[in-house]
Amino acid sequence: MNRPSVSEVSSGTVLPELRVRVTRERLVRYAGASGDFNPIHWNERFARDVGLPNVIAHGMFTMAQGARLVGEWAGDPGAVIEYGVRFTRPVVVPDTEEGALVELTGKVTGVDEAGVARVTITARSEGQSVLGKAVARVRLAD
Fold it and tell me: For position 1, what pLDDT does the model report?
């Protein structure tokens, strides 16, 4: 995919939706890659003992899916020059083949004179927002 250009993008441009299935297996793989082996991400009994409804996805895994949404749209992950979120609610991952579904959307809320788009990202699981104030800045092609 080519990077979107300044002439193609304006405030209101909607990014293609990204739907991500999060399974327990995926969480274990992410734990291995990230080094975060906190049992709330793989042990249901432990998660419930500390007051969680079930095993939850790593916050950074969820955040990374927002970066993936924007990076894929930009056609170059290196075009994402800034990205930040607030974690509003965990993604609860049941022990099923389907796991949990995270649905991500994005919308350009402005383009500055330097050709940098501001993209607001929405991430939802079970109908509820799981990331707040999720905003990326993306350098567009000339």
Answer: 59
Instruction: Report the pLDDT value the prediction gives residue 108, as an integer from 0 to 100.
Output: 98
Under 8 Å CB-to-CB from 68, ≥6 apart: which residues?
Answer: 18, 20
Residue 74: which CATH number?
Answer: 3.10.129.10
10 Å Cβ neighbour count for 1? 8
First-residue to last-residue Cα distance in the chain:
15
139 DSSP β-pair partners: 116
| Percent share of the chain, pLDDT over 70 | 99
Tokens standing for residue 8: 């193609």
Look at residue 103 and tell me if it is in a domain.
yes
Give pLDDT, residue 17.
98
3-state secondary structure of 101: strand
Range of the domain at 79: 18-22+57-139
Give Cβ neighbours of residue 9 (< 8 Å, ≥ 6 apart). Answer: 108, 111, 117, 140
Residue 3 has what pLDDT? 82
**Where do we find the tokens 């990014």?**
15
Question: Measured over all CA atoms, what is the biggest interatomic distance in the chain, rounded to whole angstroms?
Answer: 53
Rounded to an integer, what distance in angstroms lies between the CA atom of residue 125 and that of residue 136?
20
